[in-house]
Amino acid sequence: MTELITAGLSPAFPVIIAGLLAAISPSYTLRKMLMIAAPLAAAAVWFMTPEVGIFGLIDLAGFEFETYRFDPLSRVWGLVFILAIFLNSIYALHDRDRLADSTTLIYSGAGLGAVFAGDLLTLFFYWELTAISSVFLIWTSRNPEAFRAGLRYLSIHVLSGVLLLAGAVLYANHSGSWQFNAIDVNAPGGLLILLAFGVKAAFPLMHNWLQDAYPKATATGAVVLSAFTTKLAIYALARGFAGLDVLVWIGAVMVAFPVFYAVIENDLRKVLAYSLNNQLGFMVAGIGVGTELGLNGAAAHAFVHIIYKALLFMSMGAVLMRVGHTKASELGGLYKSMPFTAFFCLIGAGAISAFPLFSGFVAKALTLSAVAYGGYEIPFVILVFASAGVLEHSGIKIPYFAFFSHDRGHRVKEAPWNMLLAMGLASFLCIYLGINYGALYSLLPYPVAYEPYTFDHVVGQMQLLLAALFAFTFLVKFKLYPEEVRSINLDTDWFYRRFGDGLFRWTGAISGRLSAAISNRIGRGGKVIADKLFNLFSPAGALSRDVPSGIMAIWTSVLLGLVMVIAYLAG
Amino acid sequence: MTDDSKTSHPAGSDEGVHPAAKPFLWLDHPVTKAAPFWIFGIAALSLLVVEAFNPLHAVSKWDDVFGFYEIEGFVGFCLAVLAGWPLRRLLGRPENYYDQEGDHD
After folding, report:
1. Are A395 and A471 spatial neighbours (Cβ–Cβ below 8 Å)?
2. Measured between alpha carbons, how far is residue A460 from residues A329, A529, B51 in Å?
3. Residue A502 pLDDT
């Protein structure tokens, strides 16, 4: 095994290869065996990697790709990604969709590959592979709404990749190296790379692809999506931009605004998507502080967050599977028919709310302390406020409105055994890591000299949570808590779903008139060119026969062309 | 996606309840539903008393204020929830706001 690793075997390879094999395997049993075997093989590679170092050097076209960098930062993300693949595979055992099985593995493997990438081009390759493979987890819902959301998701993530490539070319030209290490944001290309990471990390105003797409994925797809894309971006930020002061403030905004959206959101999977955004904010803030404590906090938070967020998405996936929707206004009382799912959801809620003895408590403590010790007074207050907000949307709203609250009379089957097993394992980890926190701390990038279970910390956290719980009961008792109603809420996606769409239609109408004027007044020459372009790029045109949209093709071509121009000028 | 085996019962009915859930049906009792208000209120108050006798060590100038975490917990939670009323008026739209032709065929 050691020879194979030295020769270039990375934990990503068995997962991606299993995904490719699953794509051509008509046998359900074989696909499921591949799904279980792949993370085990990846774990074997991870555990048997002899030491910190760079493996898997591939010479191609005069460029040396570093496909497997195993160091204190990448190994913690690598391990939790492998763990997530294993849990997802168990959760999806009942699923007979070949496309979903295959793309789940390829996407997860691409996430692993990106985490272990030692250079910016390898990172770009896997960055784009995560985007392209993950969109199928949305499309496998197989309805028009999910299809359109998938297109929007893909466009935004391809854009992120293009920004990354453009930034990498400029940056490498400036620095003379393609190595993916600390990046100077003020150097040419540095800001583009930060933006690329920011899009994928769902920075404020770039966030809405997450709430738009994840709730439209399948029950299993949302669980898979919740683990990799955004946490890959967090890893990239920790690797490239640790200590960048502005990230503390971006993190502070990220933790706060989703709290307000989550309160008024009716779709509980969308509430979880906003909650995911909020949790990412804690990690971004920790990275912005940039101290060893801050980076340990971000890594610990990412590790436990992947597990408890997957657990919460799993529980809502089970509700979606059994009831058919996750609308808070029409749920309630489900603990009577899904008691085990309700129990596991409560454990996930306890973990994300950071109750003592749960994993969130020992992880979030590091970040909050790092922000406070770093002298970031206002962000500290915002992060503490957001901790109460987390309790509101993920700790109370999710379990309360789905499983308790007003009994709507749904009597459904409990979730299948495989879903319960996956939720049970995730629940065990939420508690195990909260109690035996040394196991978590020993994985972190830097040595940890931190004791989370002090009198100050336990009492302070319990004060926050109990006061917030009392506030909830107070607001419900006096009917001040807004009723859940069937509605959607405007967010930044309005700009491209309504405003942009309207602008596009208006431009189309104007260009149609212009085209008519050209054909009438100047002659047929312009019309011939216009017709040819239309035949090529229109939704029914030649370019659209094999891809979902001609417009998508145009945009991708334009953006890639832009990158080539930048590369040419830089060279 | 939906499970075909689901059945609907009158709200509050105990028919079709999972055997593992039966020992927990007391959760629906009005007394049980009213209890958390008092339990959490008293518990929160108790921790304030604990802090009064054994002050927490501050890590920032904010948590040097007595009851900082309780104030943030209560006020922050209320602020987030109460902001929901105007925000829903401002941002709320019908569920079919973004629907297109053929979405529900």
Report:
1. no
2. 34, 70, 9
3. 75
Q: Indicate whether A483 and A503 sit together in one domain.
A: no
Chain A contact for B59 (CB, 8 A cutoff)? yes
Mutate which of A470, A491, A495 to disrupt the B interface (most B C-beta within 10 Å)?
Answer: A470
Tell which of A428, A460, A487 closes a domain: A487
Question: What residue of B is the nearest CA neighbor of A326?
Answer: B2
Q: Which two tokens stand for residue A101?
A: 């099985």
Contacts of B57 in chain A (CB under 8 A): 456
Give the integer Cα–Cα distance in Å for A41 and A108.
13
Q: Which of B61, B84, B100 lies nearest to residue A264, judging by beta carbons?
A: B84
Residues A358/A350, Cβ–Cβ less than 8 Å: yes
Of A487, A504, A535, the residue that ends a domain is A487
ipTM for the whole predicted complex goes beyond 0.85: yes
Q: Tens digit of pLDDT for each residue in A21-67?
A: 999 999 999 999 999 999 999 999 999 988 888 887 888 777 888 88
| One domain, residues A415 and A530 | no
From the number of C-beta atoms within 10 Å of its C-beta (0-12, 13-18, 19+), residue A258 rates as buried
Specify whether A450 is located in the same domain as A553. Answer: no
Each residue's pLDDT tens digit, A415-429: 999 999 999 999 999
Which residues from A are below 8 Å from B6, CB to CB? 322-324, 410-413
Residue A569 has pLDDT above 60, yes or no: no
Return residues 246-265 of A near B (CB < 8 Å).
259-261, 263-264
Nearest-by-CA chain A residue for B26: A336
**Is some CB atom of chain B closer than 8 A to the CB atom of A219?**
yes
Structural domain boundaries enclosing A365: 242-487
